[in-house]
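Hi everyone,

Forwarding the result from last night's run.
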Amino acid sequence: MKTLVEGGVLALIGAGALWGALQVPPAAPGEVGAGLFPTLIAAALIVIGGAMAITGLKGRGEAGASPAIRTLAEVGGLSFLSFAYWWAIGAVGYLLATAVAAPLALAAFDVRRPLVLGLAALLCPLAYHLVFFEALGVFPPYGAYFDLLDLLQGS
């Protein structure tokens, strides 16, 4: 049952993400658009979620799985974190929101070592900033109330 529920929810999240990714304006001819990676990731979520759901329907889920209520609570918590992260990006900018959300997401997957969580708070925003905003030239979302990038750039 757990695999069926998780797979179905993952496929639904992937469908929502695909819809959102398709809203990204297309790139100029000959360029890679900002929507390429989100579209590919959303499609992968749909495929993986569908495969998990089919496995759950066939009854080949893991033995002794926790009840569906616990699974729904875990998925609900991650969904809440996702929406809070999306809101925080608009409020306080990408860097600060990612520095808070990255260790929380890892903690949701039972990563508990303080050093790892601290490194995630520092390295995830840095790595994503370098890949997307510097290397790919994607425009970073700035915060409406505060943005750490303004302080770092001296604006």
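The CA atoms of residues 132 and 138 lie 6 Å apart.

Cheers,
N.
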